[in-house]
Here is the input.
Amino acid sequence: MFEALASTPQKPYNTSMTLKVAIACDHGGVVLKEYLKSSFTDYEWIDLGTNGSDSVDYPDYGYKLAEVIKTGEAEYGVAICGSGIGISIAANRYKEIRAALCNNATMARLSREHNDANIVCLGARLTGDLLAKEIVETFLTTNFEGGRHERRRDKLTQKGQP
Here is the structure.
């Protein structure tokens, strides 16, 4: 069923430059964060933590990640917590952020093509390593389609909109 939706991903950036990707997680996402960083060595990772198993608050890391994307220090971000839900809610509190919780590569592709998402969110307790790798790869190599989607994307980033 999903095969009809598949498309060949394309890198949304100049391939002669190294893409900067920020990554942040709470204590539940540390192992997955390290796996993803080691799986994509052609990206420059900006690691915002956390780096240990001591309990921390996912909103703090969602906010750190959103700030880095907002300021342009990184073009894209990867956010990880136990379910992916909490950290995505935290990141989406910034009008410049379009954080998408993705459970599969099709969601990652559509979040980029249709929504111009700039952060992909993962649930470390719900997403295996290989699937997470596929989701992140798809997210980072898919272009925004623009066109009719620009109007909708712009409505997501306008101040004062519901």
